[in-house]
Amino acid sequence: MTNDNIDNSVSFPSFHERATPLTSADQARIRLASALRILITDSFLSTAPIENIDAAIRHIEAAIQEVSADGVVGSAAAESHFSDRSPFYGAMNPISMPMVMTRDVNFGEFGAIIGTGTFTEPYEGPPGHIHGGFIAAAFDEVLGMAQSLTGRPGMTGTLTIKYRAPTPLNTPIVYKGWVDRVDGRKIFCKGQSFNGDTLCAEAEVLFLSMPPEMMDLLRKGRDLTTPPQFP
């Protein structure tokens, strides 16, 4: 995602942009995450007899042995693209919905990001509705992608949420985020979420853009055996 008005001498590709196509191994991990997503929800809601649950545990333990058969756990996630491992729209991440992310190029100077997701029972806070923490985190994800449209993406500085109406589970919720203004390293974004025509919440976020070398240090931070040295 780029904008023609950005000074490319100080900009760099957003970590939301995919540089390489999905491999067959990536596709397999996507299928695994999809199955796990169903398991998470069904096990959370299950009223099955204890013997059935015990049998399921044995199958799950066997599955754990299968996916960790090479003795290495975690390297695939570190090497995958952010758009695949995102906890909200990453197809390889079993805790994601996953949200569907699109761009409205006709909105404002940089365009807007539209994220649509359906939260199930594991995300419940008030009875029948989404936990406020997940609502805030979803805004952070959508607006994080929106601020990257400036070409100088950064990290969240402050996140303010106004909850306008309860946000229901098992209902498509539409998030919209856009860049309000840019002031040096500061990128100010706004967002709204809707259940149909009902405004559920609003957000204001300040992002602080970072230089490319800082992003490189963050990437290196995935290797937990060698902590990055920040200036």
What does this structure look like?
The chain is an alpha+beta fold and 231 residues long. The chain has one domain: Thiol Ester Dehydrase, Chain A (Roll), CATH 3.10.129. The protein has six helices and six strands, in the order ααααββαββββα. It has helices at residues 24-45, 50-67, 75-79, 82-85, 132-147, 212-220; strands at 100-104, 112-118, 154-163, 172-183, 186-195, 198-209. It has a six-stranded antiparallel sheet, with helices on one face. β4 (172-183) and β5 (186-195) form a beta hairpin. The two termini are 29 Å apart. The relative contact order is 0.13. Residues 1-13 have low confidence and may be disordered.
Present the secondary structure layout.
Blueprint lengths: L23 H22 L4 H18 L7 H5 L2 H4 L14 E5 L7 E7 L13 H16 L6 E10 L8 E12 L2 E10 L2 E12 L2 H9 L11
Antiparallel strand pairs: 1-2, 2-4, 3-6, 4-5, 5-6
Largest beta sheet, briefly?
6 strands, antiparallel
Element-level helix/strand string? HHHHEEHEEEEH
What is the 3D shape?
globular
Q: In DSSP terms, counting alpha (H) and pi (I) runs of 4 or more, how many helices?
A: 6
Helix content: 25-40%
Radius of gyration, in angstroms, nearest whole number: 19 Å
Question: What would the average pLDDT be, to the nearest integer?
Answer: 85
Strand content: 15-25%
Looking at the overall shape, the CATH architecture is Roll
